[in-house]
Amino acid sequence: MSLFRRLFRKKSMEYTINQARGESGLQKAMGAFDLTMLGVGAVIGTGIFVMTGIVAANNAGPAIMLSFVLSGIACAFAALCYAEFASMIPASGSAYTYSYTVFGEVFAWILGWDLILEYGLACSVVASGWSAYFQELMRGFGLNLPTAISAAFNPGNGTYVDVMATVIVLLLSVVLLTGVKQSTRINDIVVLIKIGVVLLFIVVGAFYVKPSNWTPFMPFGFNGVIKGAATAFLAYIGFDAVSSASEEVRRPQRDMPIGILSSLGVCMVLYIAVSVVLTGMVPYTELNVGDPVAFALRFVHQNWVAGFVSLGAILGITTVLFVMMYGQTRLFFAISRDGLLPKSIAKLTKKSKTPVFSILLTWGMATVFSALIPLDELAELVNIGTLFAFIVVSIGVVVLRVKRPDVKRNFKVPFIYVTPFLAVLSCGFLMINLSGQTWIRFLIWFAIGLVIYVLFGFRHSVLGKLKREQNQ
Q1: 30, 200, 344, 457: least buried by Cβ within 10 Å?
Q2: Tens digits of residue pLDDT in 140-163
Q3: At 215, phi and psi to the nearest 5?
Q4: 398-405 long-range contacts, Cβ below 8 Å, gap at least 24?
Q5: What is the pTM of this model?
Q6: What are phi and psi of 323, to 5 degrees?
Q7: Which spans are transmembrane here (predicted)?
Q8: How far is it, in rounded angstroms, from Cα 66 to Cα 285?
């Protein structure tokens, strides 16, 4: 077999499905409601409670509502493609697993390595936001952490480690270790509380909206709206984590499309409503703060509601972090089960089939990143990785329609030659609007990943060993 064919060896769809059903497969414990709550849990959090203020103040002004519409539309096109794949290939690994089937091993590794960056940094971004909100809540009771341990490493500001971020990462790792059935039940309850808090802000805040605050509507021009959409895109990446749960769903062919699309629809409506109310309550120039939603309520002297929102924000950001960490653990599990990372990482407990070592690896990575790396250096890097994954999945769904028209598809992307094209176009447009520095870091991460694949993954690939045995 030539080197080229070995690099692009593919897992058949049947092989991937049998992997998920065999002894190495995960426990099937979720339904459509759990998936929807998982998606809402991932999407409604940092985007509403943290990113809204930053994007409005620095990029879009009151036109942030358009930024959320644009990034939401880009996600909707990609979500349709994910829904078809997830219903057809119910296995862990999300875009990594799909690309292994469509494009081959080296491409799957590149995408998997990209997703490791996405989830790892997303965990860190969210943990940092959680820490900021929790410390704000502590200050309400007259408690203050020493400056040195209050935020990520920045000697100029006198901060060296974000202790609260490491605490929440540890606690959620323990929840994940209890097993998927128990941890998703906890997530369902917390997400319902979070939705209630968001609705409370919208209802109360609507009485304090001043239309004059929406003028000028586009203070940074349309370019600002586009840059805002590229940054706000971070708020929508949760449905990607939902697709990583397909191996643990009882009826994936039916429930995966419902979970992905319904969670995205709910979240788009809530994001747009919150951004309209938020920029109507407070001049956009005042919103560059760590807790813009609570700040807006304090701005109109609704401190009692601000207290509820701060508590809701903490719960909301907790569920985002939980789902990001969950997605990361399943990604590590899928890649190591294929032998591209050490196979010990994919080891499951006998009773609950929980990937313990994947969870511990995720805990270590999220702890280091969230404790030491400043928030503003993370968000764009998460976005570029996610956008790249969306583009690959959108192309892959078309390729598989052409190559495997025989496969039963419980959900089909409508307008197959239009919708994926629009997904690629919109996601690519958002990618090119990210900074040059972000692109450089992204390419460096890719280069590191290729070195690891050459030195380890290529030689230890389970599929590679199977192919060699078949050729002997």
Answers
A1: 344
A2: 778 888 988 887 777 888 888 889
A3: -120, 130
A4: 399/102, 399/103, 400/85, 400/88, 400/101, 400/102, 403/102, 404/13
A5: 0.87
A6: -70, -40
A7: 35-57, 63-83, 95-112, 159-177, 189-208, 220-239, 260-284, 304-327, 356-375, 381-402, 414-432, 438-458
A8: 17
CB 32 within 8 A of CB 259: yes
Return the axis-axis angle of helices 180-206 and 252-281, rounded to nearest 10°. 30
Q: 329 and 176 in contact (C-beta within 8 Å)?
A: yes
Residue with tokens 């976005």: 383
Q: Tell me: the pLDDT tens digits for 350-387?
A: 877 889 999 999 999 988 888 777 655 566 677 788 88
